[in-house]
Design brief:
The protein has 13 helices and 11 strands. It is of the alpha/beta class.
């Protein structure tokens, strides 16, 4: 079997278990940068392994006559043309759930960083202003995560892992999801009720036409005054201009973001251009929620098991394009 590899080679080799790739498979490495579509098409591979941030276009899918599978290295697949793949009879699969615990930890990190004003206090202590920072916190008070009502938007694998961690802190937890499991101990709230009643809203939904810019001026206007928004999903879910307006008006008390759009982040991104007094209300991380060592070992376990299924004529798992 021949596989066109659109991921970092060193990363692949580091996290692939010994013996996971049969000796007679041919891996053709293209890197995880901007894809050279002509070279990928010319490889005439049976499968594509793609970084979740690497686009796989209809041109590539239709140009590879032996192609049977486009496998995302991660959970995201919004840059793969799933409709073109479906029309061509090509499976698109991801590594659903493999990064759930890691992303849940990142969400908690961002919540705590904002509640404890970590960035601001860290900077002041480094400036020799430790007592000033402590006095500010003493006078205004700090909020414990256990005293917060946290609303989880999207109760998939990541949302469930987050709920487990929040329960350990003693937080009150509610959720909204378009799919309501029949057995779930977490209270369900309609989306508007979740927005209006929760101290923290944490987003865990994929990018779809329905979720793109789902956080906008209208929805932010329904948030509880001073609430915190956490986004470890995808930048496209949040209208960033609206986010900045909500921070400026005080509707939002803070935002913890592991993702921005576009990626790589450009200098003119409105979040980066916030004035200093508002930047202290924002905690940023460079889209690292799901790139722990543990996640990558789990990713590649799924990847090579799916490739083996394909080589044996079986249907892959985690198919996301309806085939």
């Amino acid at each position: 079997m021949k596989i066109a590899v659109l991921v970092n080679k060193d990363n692949l080799e580091r996290y692939t278990a010994a013996g996971a790739i049969p000796d007679d498979w041919e891996l053709i490495h293209f890197g995880n940068g901007t894809p050279d579509e002509d070279r990928i098409i010319a490889s005439d591979a049976d499968a594509i392994l793609a970084d979740a941030m690497c686009p796989v276009s209809a041109r590539v899918i239709n140009g590879m006559k032996r192609l049977k599978l486009v496998q995302s290295q991660g959970v995201g697949y919004n840059l793969i043309d799933t409709e073109a793949a479906k029309a061509a009879g090509v499976y698109v699969a991801n590594c659903a759930g493999a990064n759930a615990s890691a992303v849940a930890e990142q969400a908690v990190l961002l919540m705590l960083a904002l509640l404890r004003r970590f960035k601001e206090n860290d900077a002041m202590v480094f400036e020799g202003r430790q007592m000033e920072a402590k006095t500010r916190c003493f006078e205004s008070g700090l909020t414990e995560l256990g005293d917060c009502h946290v609303g989880i938007v999207g109760l998939g694998a990541i949302g469930r892992e987050l709920a487990k961690r929040l329960a350990a802190f003693g937080s009150r937890i509610s959720y909204f999801d378009t799919y309501r499991p029949q057995t779930c101990e977490i209270p369900f709230l309609e989306l508007e009720d979740l927005y209006s009643s929760c101290d923290i809203i944490s987003l865990h939904v994929p990018v779809t036409p329905e979720t793109t810019n789902m956080i906008n001026d209208d929805t932010l206007g329904k948030f509880k005054q001073g609430a915190i928004l956490i986004n470890t999903a995808r930048g496209e879910i949040v209208d960033q201009e609206a986010l900045c307006r909500a921070l400026e008006s005080g509707r939002l008390g803070g935002a913890g973001l592991d993702v921005l759009t576009p990626e790589p982040v450009t200098p003119d991104n409105p979040v980066l251009r916030l004035p200093p007094d508002l930047k202290r209300k924002v905690a940023l991380s460079p889209h690292i929620g799901g790139i722990t060592s543990g996640s990558f070992y789990r990713y590649y376990g799924i990847v090579w098991a799916n490739m083996k299924r394909l080589s044996e004529g079986a249907r892959p798992v985690n198919v996301v394009n309806g085939l």
